[in-house]
Amino acid sequence: MENEKDYSTKTFHIQLLTKTMDMEQYPLVRMIIENNISKQEYDELFEHLEGLYQQYTMQKEEGLLDFTSLLVHFAGMLNVKLHPDAVIAALKKEGYYPSLMDVFMQILKENGR
């Protein structure tokens, strides 16, 4: 019973903290909290992103111009709790992997999303 009380209190404290800061500046953080993403899931997201960024860099150096396959891979590797378009926008706004997120956003724009 004590664990439930501790969890409830911590959840409440987090809710209070998120109300005191401008969460519009941190859309990824907001998404992580709202979708109850664990530390392990968060770490996995960034491990996958790092791998995709390395692939993007290599493909770009080789002269590849179409990175749609990387976007498809990104969407497929995402936690089911997260929506690819929203995560891309959030990552871009927070400054993570800007060149890769620019490419992903361009592909989405070209496909009417």
TrEMBL record:
SUPFAM superfamilies xref list: Hypothetical protein YhaI
Alphabetical list of Gene3D superfamilies matching this protein: YhaI-like (1.10.3750.10)
Protein name stated in the entry: DUF1878 family protein
Lineage of origin: Bacteria, Bacillati, Bacillota, Bacilli, Bacillales
